[in-house]
Amino acid sequence: MARIVGIDLGTTNSLVAYMKDGQPCVISDRHGRTMVPSVVALTDNGLIVGDSAKEHLTRNPERTVYSVKRFMGKGLADVQSDLTYFPYHLTETGGVIRIRLGQKHYSPPQISAMILKELKLRAEAYLGESITKAVITVPAYFNDSQRQATKDAGLIAGLEVLRIINEPTAASLAYGLQQRTQGTIAVYDLGGGTFDLSILKLKDGIFEVLATNGDTHLGGDDLDRVLVDLFVAEIRDRRGIDLSNYPDHMQVVRLEAERAKIRLSDELKTDVAIELPDDKGRFFRELTRDQLESLTMTVIERTLAPCRMALKDAGLTPKDIDEVVLVGGATRMPLVRQRVETLFGKPPHCRLNPDEVVALGAAVQADILSGGTTDMLLLDVTPLSLGIETMGGVMSSLIRRNTTIPASAKEMFTTYVDGQTGVDIHILQGERELVKDNRSLARFRLKVPPLPSGVPRIEVTFLIDANGILNVTATDMRTGQSQSIEVKPSYGLSDTEVERMIEDSFKFATEDVNARKLIEARLDAESLIKTTDKSLAEAGHLVAPEEAEAIRAALSHLSTAKDGTDSRAIRARMAELEQSAKHLNVVMLDASLKKGLQGKKVSEVS
Amino acid sequence: MANDQSSTHPVPRRQLQMARSMCWHCQSEVTGEYFCERCVKVQPVSKETDYFTCLGFPRRLMLDPKTLEAKFYELSRTFHPDFYQTKSAAEQTISLSNAAVLNTAYRTLRDPIQRAEYLLGLETGSVKDIRTSPPADLFEEILELQDTLEEYRASDHDADEGRRLRDTLKTEQQTLERRKEEMESQLRKLFVAWDKLQDAGEATSPARAERDRILKQMRDLLSHRTYINNIVNDLAVTIA
User: Which of A54, A69, A74, A151 is catalytic?
Assistant: First the structure.
C-alpha cells in the first residue's frame, strides 16, 4: 500500500509527519523548519504559502490569508464578530464563506488545500516519492460541516483523505506510544483558534475516548486580541492615532502582540515596540507577565467549563484522571498550566512538544490504517448530538453526543397525506431543544411512492463513520429497495463544486509548477551572472581577448533570456555560459592557488 | 425485533442462526462466528442478531463490566474500520456497519438499566412500549411536588418564600433519590432471580409462571424508576 502521511492542518501552523522504523517523525524543510505557517498570500508572482507568505502579512495584508481554519464549514453570519479583526475581504456564496484575493474568490477549503499542497510537496521532496494519501487532523469539537470542509480541502489538494482524526486523540496516540501508559488521561488542547478537552481510557493498546468537549472559537488568537485591543486603545490615548482607520496596519499590532505573549511564557516582563503608520515613529511600552495574565484570565477561564462538562459526561471527577496532557502552542503559557493544575489537582504532563504531538499522532494513525501498527486502536466519539427536525421546530435526537463511532440510528418515515410523494428531512447537530438553536447540517427529500397516507414505510439510516462524518441511506421497507439520497449541505460545498475545484486545482497545478520553475531558473541565472562577472573582473586579463568577448556575449544572451518567461531558454543560456566560461574558471583557480602558495615553503604545502 | 424470539433457550438459538448463514463472498456455509472459514472474509452481523448474541453473552442481567469491556475491545479489534482500509470496498462496508452495531450493543449492555430495558423488549415485545408511570403510592405526593415546583419557578428566589420553597424541594429531592435507590436495589434482586431461572433452564409451567412474574415486576419497576429519575433531574436543574 502506498505511504500515508499524517497532517496537522492548524489554525496558525501546519505540519506533516510519517512513520519511520516504528516511530513517528515530523518532516522538515531544507532549513530544518518543521512548521509551515498556515498563511497564503497573493503576490505579483502568484500564490505563495508558508514562511514566505507570512512576510506578506504586514506588507500586503488585504491579500494575505491567515487563520482560515476559523472559517471552515461556516457561513458569513457565523463569523460576524471576527470580521473587524481580519484585513482580507469576506463574502458568502451558497452558505460558504469566500475570501477575495485579487480578482478571484476562494472558499476556505481551497485556501486550506494550498497549505495541504505545500505540505504534500514538502513530504514528496523529503521522501522522494509521490504522496497521494493522508490522515488529516481536526479539532475534536468540529461539527459535520467543518469535518466535511476539511475532507474537501484534501480532495482539492490531490490527497485521498483516508481518515479525519481528532487532534486531542491524535496527541494521545503519540503520547501513549511513547509513555506506554495505562489509565485515564485528559488531553487539554489549546491551539491557535480552537479548544478541545478529551478524556480517554488507555488499556492494552485500546484508546477509548470517554467524552470530549470544547469550543471551536477559542484559542491563542483570542489571547492576542486582548493585547491588540489594549495596544490600540493606548496608541489612541497617548499618541492620538486611531488605528481603526488603518486596517492594513492592524497586522503589525497583532504580530507584535503575539510575539510579546510568547516571550512572556519565559520572561517576567518584556518590551513592546509597535511601528506607527504615516512615519509617526514607534509606540513603546513595557508589558509584564502579571499584566498579561490579568488581561487574559477570562479567556483562559472559558476553557474550564468544557473541561467540567467532559468530566461529567464521562462520569468522572478530577481525581479519577491519572494524567493531564497538554497540546497546542498556547499551553506554554504559565497561567494555562496553573489553571489546568488547579482544576485537575495534578501538574500537567508537558514533556512532549505541544506543537508537534498532533502531527506525530496523525502519522501513527496513518500507520494503523496502512496495516503497519496493529496493536493500537483508537475508539473515538462524536462530539455533538445528531438529530432531525420534528413538528413544532423541535430537534429529536438520534445519536447522542459522546457516542462511540462508527454509530448508527434508524428512523422509520411515512406519509400523512394520501398520494404524498416526498418527505422533507432536516438534519441538525447540537445540544439544544429547539431547531433554531442548533446547527443545521443538511436537508434532503425522501422519495416516497404515491400511496394512501401511512402506508409507505421508508427506513432511513443515519451513520456517523469513523471520521465523524454523517452518511445517510434509505430503504423502502415494502420493496426492500434502497434509494440514493442527495443531501444538500447547509454550510458546505456541493459535490459538483468540489469536483470543479479539484479540476481547477489540477489546471492551476501546471501553472503553479511552471511559475515555480521560472522563479528558480531566474534566481539561478542571477547568481551565475554575478559569479561570472566577478571572474571576468578578476581574471579576464589572463585569457585570450576573443575568449573574454565570447563570455561577455554569452552573459548578455543569458540576461535577455532571464527577462523572458521561458525557464527552459534560461537553463539553455546558462549551460552555454557555463561552457564558454569553463576555461576562465580553470585559469582563475590556478591563479588563486599560485597566489596562495607564494611565500610558503614546500614542507608547508605537502 | 420480532416477537417470535422470546425463546427461553438463548444459547442454542444462536448456533441455529449462524448455521443458516452463507458467505456473501464465496457462498459457502458460514459456521464460524465472524469470518468465513473458507475465504476468511468478514461476515455481516445479521439484522436479527440481538445485542447479547453480538457480544457473545447469554441473556443475563448481572454482567461483569470488566468481562463486557474486554469482549468489546476484542470485537472492536475484529471489526473496526481502521483494520479494513486495505481490504475491498465490500469488506469495508461490512466492517463499518458491524462496528456500528457493536458500539450500540456495548452502549446498551454496559448500563444495567438500559440492559434490563433491552432484555425486556426482547422477551416481551418492543421496548418502546415501556411507558414511564408514577408509582401508585407516590401519586398524590408527586402532584403536590409539581405544584410546589410551579410556585417556586414563579417566586422570587432570593426572598424568604423562595428560600422556603427551595428547602422543601431539596428535602423532596432527597426523599425521591432514596426511593430511586430502593427501586434499584429491588431491581438488582430481580436481575439475580432472572439469571438464576435462566441458568436452571427449566421449561416447566411453574418456571414459565415465575419468568412472567419477574418480567412483569421488572417492567413496573423500570417504568417507575425512570419516572422518578426524570423528576429528580428536573428538580436538580430547577434548584441549582
Answer: A69
Last residue of a domain, one of A241, A272, A299: A299
Q: How confident is the model at residue A406 (pLDDT cuts 50, 70, 90)?
A: very high
Residue A333 inside a domain? The answer is yes
| CATH for A591 | 1.20.1270.10
Residues A280 and A332 in one domain: no
**Superfamily of segment(s) B3-127:** DnaJ domain (1.10.287.110)
State the SS3 of A492-515.
Answer: CCCHHHHHHHHHHHHHHHHHHHHH
| A603 within domain boundaries | no
A1 touches chain B (CB under 8 A): yes
A406–B107 CB contact, under 8 Å: no
Contact yes or no for B85 and A369 at CB 8 A: yes
Q: What are phi and psi of B8, to 5 degrees?
A: -95, 5
Given CB atoms, is B114 within the 8 Å cutoff of chain A? Answer: no
Mark whether A475 and A513 lie in a shared domain: no
pLDDT in tens, B105-129: 999 999 999 999 999 989 887 655 5
Query: For residue range A5-47, what is the model confidence (pLDDT) as tens digits?
Result: 999 999 999 999 999 988 999 999 878 899 999 999 998 878 8
**Global pTM?**
0.82
Tell me which residue range forms the domain holding A557.
Answer: 497-597
Helix (H, G, I), strand (E, B) or coil at B27: coil
Nearest to A162 among B77, B85, B97 (CB): B85
Nearest CA in chain B to A208: B73
Alpha helices in A28-183 (DSSP H): 51-54, 56-59, 108-127, 144-156, 167-179
